[in-house]
Amino acid sequence: MFNLTAALKRLVIGRAMRSEELHETLLPKRLALPIFASDPLSSVAYATQEILLVLTVGGLAYLHFTPWIGAAVVCLMAVVVLSYRQVVRAYPSGGGSYEVVSTNLGASAGLVVAAALLVDYVMTVAVSVASGVDNVISAVPALAEHRVLMAVAFVAVLAAINLRGVREAGAAFATPTYLFIGCMLIMVGTGLVRYLLGTAPVAESAAYGIRPEPGSQALAGLALLMLCLRAFSSGCTALTGVEAISNGVPAFRRPKPKNAAATLAAMGLIAVVMFAGVTTLALVAKVHITNDACQLTGLPGNCAHFTQRTVIAQIAAAVFGGTDTFPFYLIQTATALVLILAANTAFNGFPLLASILAQHRYLPRQLHTRGDRLAFSNGILALAVVAGVLLAVFRANVTNLIHLYILGVFTSFTLSQTGMVRHWNRELATVTDPPLRRRHQVARVVNGAGAVVTGLVLVIVLLTKFLQGAWLAVLAAVVLWTTMRGIRRHYDTFAAELAVIEPRDTYQPPSRVQAVVLVSKLHKPTLRALAYARAFRPDSLEAVTVAVDRDEVATLEEQWRQFEIPVPLKVLDSPFREITKPVVEYVRTLRRSSPRDVVAVFIPEYVVGHWWENLLHNQTALWLKSRLLFTPGVMVTSVPWQLTSSALADHPVPRAPGAVRRGEPSPDQSRHHSAGYR
């Protein structure tokens, strides 16, 4: 029988893969780059813009700080990339910053990093998709009113692609990422050549002035420093996602650490070139952009209805001769695609980190389970849902979301580099070979410099963004940290409670087994339940019904005598027409009367084939089971009766060869729903 749900699942996700096929999903460097590095590579599309948006608060005068701020971001990126190359070599198991910090600074510090990264992965999806939608709207302004819908739809598509597995996601994302890199390099190269030839590109906003915000016209001293620090912290969004490669080392082909380090180096070089080029062209073309269009002066119309194009869009239009040229639309398309696909960095990093945390019992164990395509499906779905909600709440607005961003990244940067310094200290205490000691000393210097620099940036981010919204990210990380600690305590308590202290520990058998079969009326499901209970040969067996309707009970008793059922029937009184409470109280009475006995309760249930049939049957069995399961010494057994509507009853679906031996579920299994015993 055709199963629509299974067919749709296969269409979206693909065929299920065996565990032995995991090695086939390992990535070469050419696919690993777009998968793990699309976020930092695509950040050039908005990092420069975020710097300009902060500096133009004070008008055009402060734009001359842009080159210095851009240079600081480039230097920081170089330090971080070099530092993480040390991480992937020293800790190739895939834990990344979390493993480094947990090993060297303790479990609590490791959880701080994990919580910060999980929050930041969610923000990566939200910011990347929102920025991609911005670029789509820059090309087609009429789509502005559908911003949130487009953003949520893009997240759903990304989740579906990632559910198909890492390798297929890499193949899908490789072309847009390399197209974006090519477009950016061509645009930067063309723009710089035009500048050198004396025909510098001019942005469409170059003629607009900028009205400074009140009180920011003549900033000096500490106020000016804070403005520059704010711009620098916003530009540091270019570094987001750098750590993803260190989390994804196990996904690389062998030699894993070497390939991961090479991919990191390539990512760093490309990102630096593109960021520096875009920042330079933004200054050359005199791009003027503000948070509020009404800050611009000289606009052709009403500022309330004026839509500013992104920095990338303005540069592309200036370099290639307008907004109606093929290169402009190609660059906008490539930028929008790569920004949306940049969220894929999080779709790889989040599930991997969540899987490791689940393995360490800090998150639910379901997050450690691989899906049909050997991807961590539960982590992918969790990330998609949370990011979608965040986009809806913040209306997919990049400026609002950006303030929640990068805090987690620099928390992990700082702690991981500090942890690496301790790692090298321990190594140096045991290594005596001079060349190896020198390499370790150089590595310690690199990681030490990384710890200091990223620590300073973390302080800057906290000072400049905390009140603008970063406090929400801090609060989310604190809540997540506390939750993970609570989950670990639960699992530890659970394990201690279930542990076998002595190998000879055995569960003492009960003195007797008292069996109870719940009966509503005499029909085939009841007879099957009675037969099944008798097959267990309990010490005592009785059928129990509840007197909700006296006429029905009288009919049942008459049928019981007529068919000579060899099991005594006990009728429980229920003056208030309840069913669950009398049964539970009776079972507990049996248990109290003989504490060393076990009470086995057999509940006949219907199995139906259509969801709507459940609405037509009582769910008493579900309530009874949920109550009885909390009663010590009571065992509950469901005895199913498949109705003709159930595909399992009269229309069995053929199973694949070997499916039973492999323990695979029936194709129809998901369609069977249990109804109540009435």
TL;DR of this structure?
The chain is α/β, with parallel strands linked by helices and 678 residues long.
Shape: elongated
Poorly predicted sequence stretches spanning 5 or more consecutive residues:
648-678
Approximately what portion of the residues adopt beta-strand conformation? 5-15%
Number of helices: 25
CATH superfamily of the largest domain, called what?
Amino acid/polyamine transporter I
What is the total domain count? 2
Task: Provide the structure class.
Answer: alpha/beta
Helix content: 55-70%
Instruction: Just name the CATH architecture of the largest domain.
Output: Up-down Bundle
Biggest sheet architecture: 6 strands, mixed
Please count the beta strands (DSSP E, at least 2 residues each): 8
Question: So what's the CATH class of the largest domain?
Answer: Mainly Alpha
Distance between the termini: 28 Å
Task: Tell me which oligomeric state these chains represent.
Answer: single chain
**CATH topology heading of the largest domain:** Amino acid/polyamine transporter I
Rg over CA atoms:
32 Å
* Overall mean confidence score, pLDDT: 82
